[in-house]
Amino acid sequence: MYVFEEERKSYLKADIISTVEFNSSGELLATGDKGGRVVVFQREQESKSQPQRRGEYNVYSTFQSHEPEFDYLKSLEIEEKINKIKWLPQQNAAYFLLSTNDKTVKLWKISERDKRPEGYNLKDEDGRIRDPSTITSLRVPVLQPMDLMVEATARRVFSNAHTYHINSISVNSDLQTFISTDDLRVNLWNLEITDRSFNIVDIKPANMEELTEVITSAEFHPQQCHTFAYSSSKGSIRLCDMRQAALCDKHCKYFEEPEDPSTRSFFSEIISSISDVKFSHNGRYLMTRDYLTVKVWDLQMENKPLETYQVHDYLRGKLCSLYENDCIFDKFECVWNGSDSVIMTGSYNNFFRMFDRNTKRDVTLEASRENSKPRAILKPRKVCVGGKRRKDEISVDSLDFSKKILHTTWHPHENIIAVAATNNLYIFQDKVN
Amino acid sequence: MIGGMEGGVDAQSLISISLMKIHNSRTQRGGIKLHKNLLVSYVLRNARQVYIKEKYAEIYRMQQYEEVMTVCNEIQELNPLDLDAEEADEEERSRGEESSVCGAALQRGAAQPAALCRTGSAVSGCCPLEDVGKDPEPSYYRSCCMEAPPAAPCDPFTGSGGAHCNKTTVLDLDTHVVTTVENGFLHQDCCCAPTGQSAAKKRKVEFGCCVSDLDDVPDFTRKRAKREDCSFSDYTDTSNISNLISIFGSGFSGLLSRQADLEQICSKQALASLGAWTRAIVAF
Predict the structure, then answer these.
(1) Is the pTM of this model over 0.80?
(2) β-sheet bridge partners, residue A179
(3) Is A253 at the interface with chain B, CB within 8 A?
(4) Which of A25, A252, A305, B261 counts the highest number of beta carbons within 10 A?
(5) What is the percentage of chain B residues whose pLDDT exceeds 70?
(6) pLDDT at B222
(7) For domain A11-112+149-159, is the CATH number 2.130.10.10?
(8) What are the extents of the domains in chain A?
(9) Nearest residue on chain B to A207, judged by CA atoms?
(10) What family is reported (chain B) (predicted)?
(11) What does the mean pLDDT of chain A come to?
């Protein structure tokens, strides 16, 4: 029984979704999991005959992106888990995406094949070579329709550039370069060149004993191809301009909010570590996620955030137990909606939160099979922080910390969101009027 | 600083949890996660700061208690009506001096173990006595202090008059272990030598990530544990933790700048209060 449960755990573990990403048109949705697989969903064309199936997402392609590897020099296993997927904007019929594990970035081409040539002279329909003596006439092969086949091929492999674990990748708006970031370095690549990359940020100290912070995430500016930002474990964000110097160790802007001494605790450093940084679509704002809050920064104001949203402040009194069970190290992501008016991030108990920046209203929703049948409307949830618990509320102690929503993504134009809850993917759409 | 935290959060248990996490990270699939270990080291540092602060506060409280006790003894001794007990008084006074000197030595030793306790060639010499300028019978004091180690705790105050303290704290200057005798029961307190200056040899533990560096930590802790074991009969987890704290203390110099300041402040406070007392000793 014990062995069975262990096996089941390892089976489930490989299915745990580790990243989700819409492409730039919203037509495709990619997920990566701990087993190194990528599953791509495609939105159905809306049809008049079936209006209720308003653009549902179905599996389009599945492929094994990364395999487990072994670094013989360091005697270390390299996990196959997909840390990040980033789509390239579509330029022809094929789709391209970058996927990365801890050490290697790969460029995948996903293309369709719905025709095949038939009527070869030298080989028969099965592909076997024909005996030349039996060939008496010539014919031109013609393309015949076939069942749609989606194939994924690895076009580039960008490897051996990172000593530490890659935490993020970001495609530049010039569509020619991208950056890959690990704990201490940011490397710049050309999409066409795999045997060379340029190091543009290096925060490794001369003496590793003096290490005080690491890079947690980096992203290119959505419009300015020379600007990128990276966040640190100390809760700061640096904006860098690649035109200034080849090595962008010196930042242009430094965003940090001074720590409130009244909230100091054993775990202050952990909860202030930024787990995700995202530029707004319009390029004017930055959003950062730390353990308890989401902050929106104006690029013109470095000394404090424009807005701060409490995601689950009721956890502040539970930090010790969250430290013991390692939940305090969870890296939550955050996303903007298409118009930058709403931001979303995940929490525990399969809850995720949305904050409307204009109305200042927020809502907590739950991604679970029990509570959401297809076409059902999600009911707002509430966590009871103290005092009398109402009927529909859930108390802090009842929260399931093993059910966490770390990865979410928002359709670039419509109100469609994808939420990864452990090994399940939930896609929610706006209510159809 | 860190204070008034989550109720009931024990610095010691946080230290042991953190060390366990660092140890387990070595066998994690995918290699050591630099970010996570860095964050754990911050918790370790914070817990260590609180732990050391508490220890210093305890020593400071003990020292203040001893001062009060000695003043009380003096008041008793100065009772002019008690002529028969004059000799006894002198004895007590000298004992009081000895005990106070001993106490001062202990406390000074506690405050700055490395700086003050090097000159004696004896096992745990009360060398500060020489600094004081007074020339007591060294053997007596040495034996007094030598009894500090766990086997037979030094109890310099119980001999003084009626002021019977049922709690005595003794610091072993060599191994920096604080032993408390309370109502006749021996408590093995933790090592209170957090400073990087500690006389014990310290191997630098490189946090430097990844491969083999953290291999050194458990080995070293085992060696140090053995050394301590030779000294003490019962070796508690908390002593283990203290030793590991001191190991990490030498390793994370970048993280320790604030911590060093704290220690300096505590040392200075302890010393400041001692200053007046040592002057009194010299006068005698």
Answers:
(1) no
(2) A170, A188
(3) no
(4) A305
(5) 24
(6) 43
(7) yes
(8) 11-112+149-159
(9) B208
(10) Belongs to the IER family.
(11) 92
- Please judge whether B6 and A265 are an interchain contact, meaning their C-beta atoms are less than 8 angstroms apart: yes
Instruction: Flag if A213 and B38 touch (Cβ within 8 Å).
Output: yes
Q: Does B52 touch chain A (CB under 8 A)?
A: no
Residue B109 inside a domain? The answer is no
User: What is the average pLDDT across B197-217?
Assistant: 39
Q: What is the DSSP string of B256-271?
A: -HHHHHHHHHHHHHHH
Beta strands in A273-375 (DSSP E): 276-279, 285-289, 293-298, 307-310, 334-336, 342-346, 351-356, 362-366
| d(CA B214, nearest CA chain A) in Å | 12
- Confidence grade of residue A247 (pLDDT, cut at 50, 70, 90): very high
Q: ipTM of the assembly? A: 0.90
CB proximity B35 to A under 8 Å: yes
- A431 neighbors A414 (Cβ within 8 angstroms): no
Question: Residue A418: its pLDDT value, please?
Answer: 96
Would strands A293-298 and A285-289 be described as parallel, antiparallel, or unpaired? antiparallel
**Contact check, Cβ <8 Å, B31/A216:** no
Secondary structure percentages of chain B, helix, strand, coil, to 5: 60, 5, 35
Q: What is the mean pLDDT of residues B130-148?
A: 39
- Does B58 map to a domain? yes
Rg over CA atoms, chain A: 24
For residue A333, what are its two tokens?
A: 């992501």
* Predicted confidence (pLDDT) per residue in B179-195, tens digit: 555 554 544 444 444 44
Number of domains in chain B: 1
By residue range, what is the domain housing residue B65?
Answer: 33-72
Please provide the size of chain B in residues: 284
Per-residue confidence band for B154, with pLDDT thresholds at 50, 70 and 90? very low
Q: Report d(CA B110, CA B157) in Å as an integer.
A: 18
What does the alpha-carbon distance between residue A138 and residue A163 come to, in Å, rounded to a whole number? 58
> What confidence score (pLDDT) does residue B228 get?
41
- Whether residue B122 is contained in a domain is answered as no
Q: Does A210 touch chain B (CB under 8 A)?
A: yes
